[in-house]
Automatic annotation (TrEMBL):
Residues 6-92 form the N-acetyltransferase domain. It comes from Pontibacter burrus. Pfam families: Acetyltransf_CG (PF14542). This is N-acetyltransferase. One of its GO terms (molecular function) is transferase activity. SUPFAM superfamilies: Acyl-CoA N-acyltransferases (Nat) (SSF55729). The keyword Transferase applies. PROSITE patterns: GNAT_YJDJ. Keywords: Transferase. InterPro entries: Acyl_CoA_acyltransferase, Gcn5-rel_NAT, GNAT_YJDJ.
């Protein structure tokens, strides 16, 4: 099943509608205008299907396309980046 990632810039989140539930990746901006990906949630019924990875990829691609650096405060995003070093060029690590 293909899930479409939507971006709600007002609420600062990427999300996927799954039935009557939503998976989401939230972010905020630092004073330097870097994107801090701070929380990922996937409903229990949709876990193990790569939803969190799809959200992380979409968020990081958005950061890159908008010339932002990214911070992985969320453990799911951090794990994704460690498996996908092609995003290291935009990451800010503590």
């Amino acid at each position: 099943m293909e899930h479409e990632v939507k971006h709600d810039q007002d609420d600062m989140r990427f999300y996927i509608v799954i039935g009557d539930e939503e998976a989401e990746l939230t972010y905020s901006y630092t004073e330097e205008e870097d994107m801090d990906f701070d929380h990922t949630f996937v409903p229990e019924s949709a876990r193990g299907q790569g939803i969190a990875h799809k959200l992380a990829r979409c968020g990081l691609n958005y950061a890159r396309e908008n010339n932002c650096k990214a911070i992985a405060s969320c453990p799911a995003v951090e794990a994704f980046v460690k498996r996908h070093p092609e995003y290291n060029d935009i990451m800010l690590w503590p």
